[in-house]
Amino acid sequence: MSVALRRPARPRTSVIHRPKASLTALIAALLLALLAAGCTGGGGAEPESESSSPSGTGAGAKVLAVKIDNVGPARPQTGLDRADVVYVEQVEAGLSRLLAVYSSEVPPVIGPVRSARETDLELLRQFDRPVLAFSGAQSRLLPAIEQAPLDAVPPSVAPRAYFRGPERPAPHNLYLRAERIPYVAPGSQAVEALGLRFGPAPSGGSAEESRTVRFPSARTTFTWSAERERWLISMDGSPARTSEGERLGAATVIVQEVTVRPSSFGDRSGNNTPFTETVGSGTAQVLRDGRTYEARWSRPAADADTRFTTPDGQRIDLAEGPLWIVYEAR
């Protein structure tokens, strides 16, 4: 079931007047301010049983990244259709999870929000200190999150920004009120922050009607719709829809072949958390305009952009609209 997208009221901004006052009055005002600051934990968020990490303010960040659930009980997701870039990555037990990146606009509600993974930290190094919203993380991963060049905003940092939807069971019902975190969308496309651009398709390519990427326990299918000029998305054999019931689609899809290896982390059921290597090089397929183009990808370092080129080294541009990048194990 979907979550109603009623825009929450903006919190009122208090104006502090500073007339001449006695020392006693000033001390009293400071005490009242401290008490008010300590009463912000009643926002209704219930963090997952995994721990959460404090972080910075997010001021001036170019993008907001949100870790989003992608199993059956989490669908349809809310706000996913407004993301500039969506990454599909493999997690425990061969399932998939999404990392949605916003910059041109941010919907009022996004979710369901789930926990971060080690893969996210390397992936997000491509952006200039992004804000990362997530439900929590394993306690052993928290030091790495705290040291990463990003601003982490889990429920422990911004409790009033999260709420539990009544229509779904936990943990598939935690949602983010994006207006209540310290992030303001700059209005630019997130693909620009990745060093990518919109432009004409390269020459060549071959006609493509459908492309499926399979994980051990999940699959994502992209089917071309000439009428919509979008790759319509299906997940695990069912059409993916927005919370309003519309088909979810992408203008460009990049299937990036990467190394997926075991990490040093696992879940409570004993499943290992895979780590997706996004630094390096390899092959890819770029799907746009009903055609597929063979490509190469290269990212020489964690703080470098990922370049997508034709086999002869020409830059590949994107069709204007949402970009989905799926990491396929080679």
UniProtKB/TrEMBL annotation:
A Pfam family hit: DUF3048
SUPFAM superfamilies: YerB-like
All copies of domain DUF3048, residue ranges: 61-182, 212-325
Official protein name in the record: DUF3048 domain-containing protein
Native source organism of the sequence: Streptomyces bacillaris
